[in-house]
Amino acid sequence: MSRIVYVNGNWVPEEEAVVSVFDRGFLMADGVYEVTSVLGGKLLDYPGHAARLERSLGELGMGMPMDADDLLEVHRALVEKNDLVDGMIYLQITRGNPGDRDFAFPPAETPQTVVLFTQSKPGLADAPKAKTGMKIITIDDIRWGRRDIKTVQLLYPSMGKMMAKKAGVDDAWMVEDGFVTEGTSNNAYIVAGGKIITRNLGTDILHGITRAAVLRFAREAQMEVEERPFTVAEAKAADEAFITSASSFVMPVVEIDGAAVGTGAPGSVATRLREIYLEESLKQAI
Ligand code: PDD
Fold first, then answer.
1. 4-122 and 129-284: same fold?
2. Which residues lie closer than 8 Å to 101 by C-beta, 6 or more apart?
3. Which of 52, 186, 199 to mutate to test the pocket of ligand 1 (most atoms within 8 A of CB)?
4. Could you tell me the CA-to-CA distances from 9 to 106, 113, 187, 272 in Å, in that order?
5. Domain boundaries, the chain
6. Residue having the nearest C-alpha atom to atom 17 of ligand 1
7. pLDDT in tens, 59-84
8. CA dist., res. 114 & res. 139, Å (int)
9. DSSP of 188-236
10. What is the whole-number distance in angstroms between the Cα of residue 34 and the centre of ligand 1?
11. Is 283 annotated as catalytic?
12. Which fold, 4-122?
């Protein structure tokens, strides 16, 4: 069945969902995006994703092309029109189509491009990897300096995924000055000395919405959290490692650069946090 896609105020079958070749998203990667997961037809962590979207746009000097209520309505309508039960909603907003290629930003009144589509992932919450854990490699982080803005410049993360694939593993953690920044599309954590350790927020990582929720739930469950950079050596020597993202929730990491983490099986902290995250965020899903 063809998906129904939202393009600039219109609902169109995916075959007809098109934007201009002059769109700045296409020519300059001048756009931002969000991925919101859907479980049982409901949106997880929606307020966080909507708030980060507004921040990303603001940091790039773009406004919100529609008001908050309308944006939520579009998300809901998209779920309904596509009978989406489990999966994701992808949203992208670009600086639009100025009618030609030019490095300078177009006039502010140029209409932005707004696209939303669904990705169906039946059984998303029961991903088998949660039971076996992920294997990762480490790679250099050569991305730009504003990784806190969720832009569509995903070439290096895509290359990182390909390096992982070539190495026969699931993903890559990026490393800068010896310290882990984040995964190609997720935030990175270790558990050591009884503490959950994850890089502090700044311009060098994306401020994960799942990260914020998981750290809140961890603290509420009296788990100790330390927000600071950690090295690859620390990660390899840790008791556990895991990642978080909207599409994977909490996922254990059991191997780093060929070395087993802890026992080499998913750890109890990651497993518990996954359970808590799914339970609590489903309660708050809208
Ligand atoms: N990626 N760090 C990076 C570089 C990411 O791309 C993502 C999300 C995260 C986790 O953020 P959140 O918890 O808000 O999903 C961290 C999405 C899922 C993607 O690109 O598909």
1. no
2. 22, 27
3. 186
4. 21, 10, 33, 41
5. 4-122, 129-284
6. 185
7. 999 999 999 999 999 999 999 999 99
8. 33
9. EEEEETTEEEEPPPSSSS---HHHHHHHHHHHHTT-EEEES--BHHHHH
10. 8
11. no
12. D-amino Acid Aminotransferase; Chain A, domain 1 (3.30.470)
Binding site membership of 247 for ligand 1 (Cβ less than 6 Å)? yes
User: Looking at ligand 1, which residue's alpha carbon is closest to its atom 3?
Assistant: 185
Residue type for position 138: T
Distance 207 CA to ligand 1 centre (A): 8
How large is the average pLDDT for residues 177-199? 98
- pTM as predicted: 0.96
Average pLDDT, integer, range 87-100: 97
Cα–ligand 1 centroid distance for 157 (angstroms):
11
Q: Could you tell me if the CB of 187 is within 6 A of ligand 1? A: yes
| pLDDT bracket for residue 197 (50, 70, 90) | very high
Catalytic residue (choose from 150, 161, 165, 283): 150
Is the CB of residue 246 below 6 angstroms from any atom belonging to ligand 1?
Answer: yes
What's the pLDDT at 249?
98
CATH, range 129-284: 3.20.10.10
Residue 61, pLDDT score: 97
What's the CA gap between 105 and 89, in Å, rounded?
28
What residue has token string 């105020």? 9
Percent of the chain with pLDDT over 70: 100
| 1 pLDDT tier (thresholds 50, 70, 90) | low
Which residue's CA is the closest to the ligand 1 atom numbered 4? Answer: 185
